Please model this.
Amino acid sequence: MRIVLDTNCLLQIVPRSAKHRWLFDLIKRGDIDLAITSEILFEYEEQLADFYAPVAADGVLQILDTLENIFPVQVFFKWNLITTDPDDNKFSDCAVAAGADYLVTYDRHFRILTDIEFPKIICVTLEELKTIAESQTDS
Model:
């Protein structure tokens, strides 16, 4: 399964005691592929440093840099699907370019994507992704 992870979810999966740490562990084990762009990495770094600490941001980015299931994506076309917060388009554009199965987010601005038939982007929350991941493991 290949995902794009919105920064609001990344912040919730990094701490060892986090409720959603399971996702970071699955990514680290190589069980889930993570698609990223340079623009997304810059936002990850900035938000992790602000929310936790610069050293935490460096640590997370170093981990991501060493994993074989992290897929750098080059976005050649900007779809501009999200008009209410255009900065969020970096995630939807990455999802399209990567052929991601899911875009994982809690951001309400992404709700518009459910009404767009093409390109189709399936947005899920961390809880929904956990259910999907568990069902795939059971089969």
